[in-house]
Design brief:
This protein is of the alpha+beta class and about 325 residues long. The protein is built from 13 helices and six strands. The structure holds zinc ion.
Length: about 325
């Protein structure tokens, strides 16, 4: 019996160690891209904070010292990026780390080079990171691309799915909802979050204007993916072919569509004006907002993270 328990513990630690491994590969890649191009320093700062935060709340916690390992590298990192070290124990990231990797790729390749952006992310995942089902720490599975229209080569806005395990993922959705996303996306997600049923008193779901593109792709093979039932409920997205869906284990707002549409709505005034939203009054909206913030506080206290409401990290 004891032997079996010890084996299980060993196996558990071995799986958890993929957190450290992926964290180090992602941070090193970001540092290299920043050094080679001189671009994206704030994204490096943001991702270090976000990874340190997720290390702190991981089932097997990882300190920055354990994640980085090499002492010399740690000292240099702290010199160049002191703030993530100062704030990872008090401030919550506004989005998941892989969003910073995605933004870096968009910055380096240019938003119009969709294929190159997708391929670079796929290569990073397939060649370097552990992505087996229970070892997929910090890795997004899906990317989404949105455009005002597919004509005239309009600007592309990207988003990735939450790159964290079940509990951290719920934290990141609530954090993005309270701090990062466009209000329409937050309203839609708040309609169903933290519960998975629609609130009786609030419906902030949206319907995008005709012609808007919102396409998701699997990051391991770049095959296109239909929006899941949750995204269809939130954003009235259409599926190409009706498919039987298995059980959905992720929370509302977890998918790449949320971040991508948020970026579109923040930047394309015309799309925002033509987007239809169900009506609600401001008191009910506040009540829904409070419910998300309360859930965030609860989730953080469950993982023993001391948090002062609204302390989100700004790189
Ligand atoms: Zn979805």
């Amino acid at each position: 019996m004891e032997g079996r328990d010890a084996n299980r513990e060993e196996e558990h630690l071995e799986i958890q160690d993929h957190f450290r491994r992926n964290a180090l590969i992602i941070i090193s890649s970001m540092l290299r891209w920043w050094k080679d191009s001189g671009k994206g320093k704030l994204l490096v700062d943001e991702i270090i904070h976000s990874i340190f935060f997720l290390g702190k709340i991981n089932t097997a916690p990882y300190t920055p010292e354990r994640i980085i390992g090499n002492k010399e590298m740690l000292v240099k990192l702290r010199e160049k990026f002191p703030r993530p070290f100062d704030y990872y124990l008090s401030h919550v990231p506004k989005r998941s780390p892989f969003s910073c990797v995605m933004d870096m790729m968009v910055l380096l390749k240019g938003q119009g080079n969709e294929d190159q952006i997708k391929q670079s992310l796929r290569d990073l995942i397939n060649d370097k990171l552990s992505k087996k089902k229970n070892k997929r720490f910090l890795v997004s599975t899906t990317i989404c691309v949105s455009q005002k229209s597919t004509e005239n080569n309009s600007v592309r806005y990207y988003g990735v799915s939450m790159s964290a395990g079940p509990n951290p993922r719920r934290i990141l959705v609530a954090a993005a909802c309270c701090s990062a996303w466009d209000e329409y996306v937050s309203d839609a997600v708040m309609t169903y979050y933290p519960d998975t049923v629609r609130k009786q008193y609030f419906d902030g779901t949206i319907k995008l204007p005709k012609g808007v593109r919102c396409d998701a792709f699997d990051l391991s093979d770049l095959d296109d993916k239909d929006p899941c039932k949750l995204c269809r409920n939130l954003f009235s997205l259409q599926v190409r072919t009706q498919i039987e869906e298995g059980e959905i284990s992720w929370p509302y707002g977890n998918c790449a569509e949320a971040e991508s549409l948020s970026n579109l709505l923040k930047n394309e005034k015309e799309v925002k004006e033509k987007t239809q939203q169900k009506s609600y009054n401001s008191e009910d909206r506040q009540r829904a907002k409070d419910s998300v913030l309360d859930e965030l506080k609860t989730l953080l206290s469950e993982v023993k993270f001391k948090w002062k409401a609204n302390d989100f990290y700004n790189p």
